[in-house]
């Protein structure tokens, strides 16, 4: 039982990170029909900012907002430079563009920083652990769970009560009519990217806190997982992205913890098998998007 | 007096198909003007071209003395021109009040926004009762009222109404036409596209009859009622 609860805390921490990443993908997808595979490179950028801050002995409490800000700015720049010119292109055009952006950034990281994994200095506190209800939980895990909750509450408030957030939901449902109301397409799309950058930045801090290193390809795996989570939850649905992220986190952690040792090498295929099973039962995902039209402007 | 809106040689193409073949018309301040014609005559295409939802192939549209040909839709609501689109297209996953709030998106003056709320809730008390409900759960008639209310939230000087009574029960339909008359009394100029010709001719001042993307007749509604091209337009006699 104790092991189970322990692993549940781990699953919440990992699932929360996946949820934040999947949300970032979903926010952009719901508005412009683009799966941004360069989302992971936003994480990498935030990771490198943490690394350089560590080298320059910038305190962690300052390094974190700096890293997140870098990710937001990079996301907005990405939209302005790479995606705005192909906005009226097909979904495939935008998808290929996102792969191109991802690869260009990876090559830049490799050549300008280092092709090898770089250590990131983290405060010692993060690798401590504390006793909560008789369980020993890492501070970094607790921080991940807490940050996820804060971000989800913030995002919910923003999308429900802020004029820009409501406009983003309106645009996700019917972009043409939203524009008729005077909602500017550029503002909504740039806003969606900024939000996705914020989520990627927070996810990057959580991700790097677990592994204390950053490398040029760091963003690829988590974003692939987030993509799976977004589909599992229902592509384009924000609540679905959160549900999918947590479910994927739970599947991965429980399989790693409870699968017999001789089966461990089949962990990933079994995990993805479960995902396929869920999709067989709910082809549109756990919480499908009510109006998946993703019109282009 | 210069017309509030005028179109000169407006042309709309969808690929090789010419949906609107160079039409010219104008709307004076305070008028209710109807665009009449059978399905596919190009009525909705004209409205969508005016607000920039479909590209204009050629021609010119002037609103309030400014050339708005090919302008982006988001700039028009703040300048006093808006469209209540065909099929209502309310934001179903947003609450009624959020739909209305989006209608006033372009307004910045607090008093003006407060007045807009008051006017819309005054015209449609049902929307106030249902303000926290998701728009998707409203009945068809209520959704139509919400669509018109949402358009009115931007305090338009010219409101384009695309098929406001389509798919509504007769009783609700009557309410929509009463509303059109009421709006005119409030100083809103209207361009109406409607399939209910008889009722539209009762409330409109002037009308244009469209056949296959061209205006075949224009005039006061009293004259149009007796016109033979009216029947031709719907029965396809040419």
Automatic annotation (TrEMBL), chain A:
Keyword Transport tagged: yes
Chief localisation class: membrane
Domain of life, source organism: Bacteria
Membrane topology note: Multi-pass membrane protein
Organism ancestry: Bacteria, Pseudomonadati, Pseudomonadota, Alphaproteobacteria, Rhodobacterales
Segments passing through the bilayer: 12-37, 49-78, 90-113, 133-159, 188-208, 228-257, 269-287
Keywords from the UniProt entry: Amino-acid transport, Cell inner membrane, Cell membrane, Membrane, Transmembrane, Transmembrane helix, Transport
Location of this chain's protein in the cell: Cell membrane
InterPro entries from the UniProt entry: ABC_transp_permease, BCAA_transport_permease
Similarity remark: Belongs to the binding-protein-dependent transport system permease family. LivHM subfamily.
Record flagged with keyword ATP-binding: no
Species, as recorded: Parasedimentitalea maritima
Name of the protein described by the UniProt record: Branched-chain amino acid ABC transporter permease
Automatic annotation (TrEMBL), chain B:
Signal peptide per UniProt: none
GO molecular function: ATP binding
Family, similarity comment: Belongs to the ABC transporter superfamily.
Keywords carried by this UniProt record: Amino-acid transport, ATP-binding, Nucleotide-binding, Transport
PANTHER family for the chain: HIGH-AFFINITY BRANCHED-CHAIN AMINO ACID TRANSPORT ATP-BINDING PROTEIN LIVF
InterPro entries listed in its UniProt record: AAA+_ATPase (IPR003593), ABC_transporter-like_ATP-bd (IPR003439), ABC_transporter-like_CS (IPR017871), BCAA_Transport_ATP-bd_LivF (IPR052156), P-loop_NTPase (IPR027417)
Residue ranges of every copy of the ABC transporter domain listed in the record: 5-237
Top-level taxon in the UniProt lineage: Bacteria
Protein name: ABC transporter ATP-binding protein
Ribosomal protein listed as a keyword: no
Pfam families, alphabetized: ABC_tran
């Amino acid at each position: 039982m104790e092991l189970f609860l322990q692993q549940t805390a781990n699953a919440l921490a990992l699932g929360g990170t996946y949820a934040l990443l999947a949300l970032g993908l979903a926010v952009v997808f719901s508005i412009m029909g683009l799966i941004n595979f360069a989302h992971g490179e936003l994480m990498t950028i935030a990771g490198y900012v943490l690394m350089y801050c560590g080298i320059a002995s910038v305190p962690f409490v300052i390094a974190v907002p700096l890293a997140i800000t870098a990710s937001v700015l990079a996301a907005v720049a990405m939209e302005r430079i790479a995606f705005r010119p192909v906005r009226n292109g097909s979904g495939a055009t935008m998808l290929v563009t996102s792969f191109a952006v991802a690869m260009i950034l990876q090559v830049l990281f490799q050549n300008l920083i280092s092709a090898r994994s770089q250590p990131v200095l983290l405060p010692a506190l993060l690798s401590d652990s504390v006793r909560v209800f008789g369980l020993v939980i890492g501070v970094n895990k607790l921080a991940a769970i807490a940050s996820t909750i804060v971000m989800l509450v913030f995002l919910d408030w923003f999308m429900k009560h802020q004029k820009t957030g409501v406009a983003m939901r309106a645009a996700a449902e019917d972009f043409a009519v939203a524009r008729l109301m005077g909602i500017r397409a550029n503002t909504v799309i740039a806003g969606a990217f900024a939000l996705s950058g914020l989520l990627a930045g927070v996810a990057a801090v959580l991700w790097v806190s677990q592994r204390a290193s950053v490398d040029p390809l760091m963003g690829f795996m988590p974003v692939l997982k987030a993509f799976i989570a977004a589909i599992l939850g229902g592509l384009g649905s924000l609540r679905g992205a959160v549900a999918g992220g947590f479910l994927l986190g739970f599947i991965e952690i429980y399989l790693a913890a409870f699968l017999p040792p001789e089966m461990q090498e089949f962990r990933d295929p079994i995990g993805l098998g479960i995902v396929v099973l869920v999709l067989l039962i709910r082809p549109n995902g756990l919480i499908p998007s009510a109006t998946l039209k993703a019109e282009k402007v | 007096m210069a017309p509030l809106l005028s179109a000169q040689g407006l042309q709309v193409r969808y690929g090789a198909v010419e949906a609107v073949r160079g039409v010219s018309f104008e709307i004076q301040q305070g008028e209710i003007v109807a665009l009449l014609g059978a399905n596919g005559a190009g009525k909705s295409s004209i409205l969508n071209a005016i607000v920039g939802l479909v590209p204009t192939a050629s021609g010119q549209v002037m609103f309030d003395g400014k050339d708005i040909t090919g302008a982006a839709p988001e700039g028009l609501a703040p300048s006093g021109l808006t469209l209540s689109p065909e099929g209502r297209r309310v934001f179903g996953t947003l609450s009624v009040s959020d739909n209305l709030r989006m209608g006033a998106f372009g307004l910045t003056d607090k008093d003006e926004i407060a007045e807009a709320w008051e006017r819309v809730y005054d015209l449609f008390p049902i929307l106030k009762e249902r303000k926290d409900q998701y728009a998707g759960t409203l009945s068809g008639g209520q959704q139509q009222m919400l669509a018109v209310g949402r358009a009115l939230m931007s305090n338009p000087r010219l409101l384009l109404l695309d098929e406001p009574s389509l798919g509504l029960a007769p009783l609700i339909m009557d309410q929509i036409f009463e509303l059109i008359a009421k709006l005119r009394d409030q100083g809103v100029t209207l361009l109406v596209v409607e399939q209910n010709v008889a009722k539209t001719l009762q409330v409109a001042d002037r009308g244009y009859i469209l056949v296959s993307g061209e205006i075949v007749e224009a005039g006061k509604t009293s004259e149009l009622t007796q016109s033979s091209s009216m029947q031709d337009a719907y029965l396809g006699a040419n």
